[in-house]
């Protein structure tokens, strides 16, 4: 996978976020401040504009541009957390990514989210979808699965992780201010992570 293929992934992520903007915002209205859909859409619209203006030539340059754009255009928690993930991905990316290289990059992004947000699985955050996705990707590749099949597993694991946030009580982010009342709704950030993985499956795994 080169910068062009990876750009197609992130453009598809932007498209899915735009398509699901109202759903993401409704989830964030239930347990946060109702801006996750508009935040992510604003940031990713700026990302697509930046990619159109000057297509990056390497995966690393692409991820850096995405990370910097998200950090500069999106306030709140979600944008900077995603932005940090992409900056870490930039640092971990080789000039062309094979399946294991992509898995390494995604894990570096996950480590960035942990470093910045200090959350753990079970805290009802984006990590509850991202951690199982990265683990599923690694274990499928280690078991000899094809890259498309591994991406399918990762996307399915993200979906299950997101579903599993529904009964959780939030321990990080704004939703934690609600205490027990945060239970009963899926986490918005975990939901946007499922879109990131679904976009990977349909573009990089096609
Ligand atoms: P804000 O909460 O500042 O309005 P968003 O609504 O864009 O920002 O993003 C909220 C999402 O950010 C949450 O649903 C959660 O998934 C994620 N999040 C919040 N705090 C953390 C954290 N410390 N670590 C990981 N993810 C977090
Ligand atoms: Mg919010
Ligand atoms: Mg906010």
Automatic annotation (TrEMBL):
Coiled coil: none annotated. GO terms for cellular component: cytosol. InterPro entries: DhaK_L_YcgS, DhaL_dom, DhaL_dom_sf, Dihydroxyacetone_Kinase. GO terms for biological process: glycerol catabolic process. Pfam families: Dak2. Signal peptide: none annotated. The keyword Kinase applies. Its EC number is 2.7.1.-. This is Dihydroxyacetone kinase-like protein.
